[in-house]
Here is the input.
Amino acid sequence: MTAPVNISSKEQFNNLLTSSTFVVADFHAEWCGPCHAIAPVYEQLSAQLSRPNRITFTKIDVDRQQDIAKAYGITAMPTFMVFERGRPTNTIRGADPTKLNQAIRKLAAEAGKSEPAGDAEGESAGGAWIGAAAPKGYSDITDQFEAKGLELLNRDGDFGVARTLLESSKPSALGNGKGKDAGEGAAAVDWVESDTDEQLMLFIPFMSTLKVHSLQITSLPPPGDDDDDEIPMRPKTLQLYTNRSHVLGFDEAEDIPPVQTVTIQPGDWDAKTGTAKIDLRFVKFQTVFSLNIFIVDGDGDGEKTRVDRIRIFGESGAKREMGKLEKIGDEPGE
Here is the structure.
């Protein structure tokens, strides 16, 4: 059951307009009696018809989000607006359950007819490849990373860089026409492998304040014998650290308690896409400015770990002023 997304900023709403093909907005006010009367109808439609990255239902309090209401010329409550690929296509004014039902169910039918072929292959509505279905009610927010601050420790220089892991394209190992059979050299490689041992440390600073709900990690080692130590392993143990001002060194990470430790079991990997879904303790990831992802070890006896893609799901908030990252959680003694 998916509840409407309560919009807390213009940036959050704009992000949903970009990441979801269709967005329905309920412009309401706390003092509006008709708004409260029709709310159960709207919430039921959301529960029945929401689809990750395809149809997203939102609620916008016009008193708290006056800039959004002004931008779309909202003068009466409730007003419902339907957006397709970021552009308004329909407006329903007033608390008329019949009109609202008809408009939203027509939208759902249109969404079904216009389902992009890429969805079956793991492509989100925004065009970015994802290895598994997005969690209900949340968007792919991977593109919120600040490219200049990305760092990746212990990577093998013959393979990709930090940004490779956050690319929106389908991994070449799944046959995207890039990299695979494209010849030798770093330009033909779109994945990352560790260097001296199986550990990797990825530092991701963000342009916005995020609420991070879950991660997807894709790893596509070539087939081979399990006891072949030349074949890279899939990640097994991950430690996650939030709101650090810099990439953590491996020794430094040993002295800091992680926000969450994750163990990926062999059965967690999807056989078709090589992707594992990682659910986070959402309450611990409500205000995230940066993320250190520490891959502690791999699943096997190999000497290296391979990662093809990492996707981040949740909600984005207000844009931050870039510069020195806030050092929340860096108090002495941690």
